[in-house]
Write a structure and sequence with these properties.
mainly alpha; 6 helices; globular
Length: 144
């Protein structure tokens, strides 16, 4: 149930989600680029049986998607289009346990990014977005 007394503030809550999520997608990309390096990320992908040629596209898509989400420019669509990337990340970390500080990282961070990306896709970009949320998706969802 949504507290109807607080609905005037919902656009600001969606904005907070959008800004946080966009920042997290960008930092996820920068971790690969600046800490592990592309060569290190390629080695990680290879160790999990994934093709190494996706290293640059993944980093660039995470950076671009995060920037679109931050700006609120087709942000909902960007959140949903990034889901396969994070599903791949979660599959790589699923065997490492719950905590991301475990050796090779756990699966809770990828799962959280998946969940928040779905929430953003459903909820919208909120206030101060460059493109209004209603125009971002071709289908309007009915609300209860």
């Amino acid at each position: 149930m949504i507290d109807q007394r607080l609905t005037p503030y919902a656009p600001y809550a969606a904005t907070l989600l959008r800004l946080s999520l966009g920042t997290m997608w960008i930092t996820h990309a920068l971790l690969k680029l600046l800490v592990f390096s592309i060569a290190g990320f390629e080695a990680f992908l290879a160790s999990h049986g994934m093709p190494t040629f996706i290293a640059w596209p993944v980093v660039l898509l995470e950076l671009a998607g995060g920037a679109l989400i931050l700006a609120g420019w087709h942000g909902r669509i960007a959140s949903l289009l990034l889901l396969p990337i994070m599903a791949g990340a979660m599959s790589a970390h699923i065997g490492n346990g719950w905590v991301f500080s475990n050796a090779n990282g756990g699966w809770e961070y990828p799962l959280f990014l998946i969940a928040m990306s779905v929430v953003h896709g459903l909820l919208g970009d909120g206030a101060f977005a460059l493109r209004p949320a209603a125009a971002a998706l071709p289908v309007r969802l009915k609300t209860a």
